Amino acid sequence: QLQLVESGGGLVQPGGSLRLSCVGSGFDFYSAAIGWFRQAPGKEREGVSCITSSGVTTTYAASVKGRFTISRDNAKNTVYLQMNSLNPEDTAVYYCARHPFPGVCSLPNKGLDQSTYDYWGLGTQVTVSS
Predict the structure, then answer these.
(1) Is the distance from CB of 70 to CB of 58 less than 8 angstroms?
(2) Segment 51-96, tens digit of pLDDT
(3) Of the four, 6, 26, 86, 93, which is 20 to 30 A from 120 by CA?
(4) Distance between alpha carbon 3 and the CA centroid of its chain, in Å?
């Protein structure tokens, strides 16, 4: 059974940091691109970051570029999202998702297109507040 499980969310003060993890199972993790998405209260879900299967290519939304870093350890079936300089606008439920095309993050405007991702985790809550 294919599964994605996020963890690492929590409450953090503005300016703080968190590292999210996404562990995949039930599929060839090393052959899939993984994306991070988030949904804030009352807003639509949006793309945050994407990493190709090899980890060589990454993509970021403009709102997080320079603050967030995506990485992966295929030996541990895990993708990480390091989030620094957090602000209240980053408050959301964060989801990871699998894309069957390993190089999707290399394609313009495709890596953060959630409509083409096929499996999703249940999400982890991130709250940035003082």
Answers:
(1) yes
(2) 999 999 999 999 999 999 999 999 999 999 999 999 999 999 999 9
(3) 86
(4) 15
- Tokens for 35, please give them: 């994306």
Q: Are strands 124-128 and 10-12 parallel, antiparallel or unpaired?
A: parallel
Tokens of 55: 């980890």
- Supply the Cα-derived Rg of the chain in whole angstroms: 13
End-to-end CA distance of the chain: 40
Given a contact cutoff of 8 angstroms between Cβ atoms, the answer to whether 99 and 47 are in contact is no
Where are the strands (E) in the chain, listed by range?
Answer: 3-7, 10-12, 18-25, 33-39, 46-51, 58-60, 68-73, 78-83, 92-99, 119-120, 124-128
* Dihedral of the alpha carbons of 49, 110, 26, 40, in degrees to the nearest 10: 50
Residue with tokens 């290519």: 57
For 89, half-sphere exposure in the C-beta direction (CA atoms, 13 angstrom radius) is 6
Distance separating alpha carbons of residues 89 and 127, to the nearest angstrom: 9
Residues forming beta bridges with residue 33, ordered by sequence position: 99
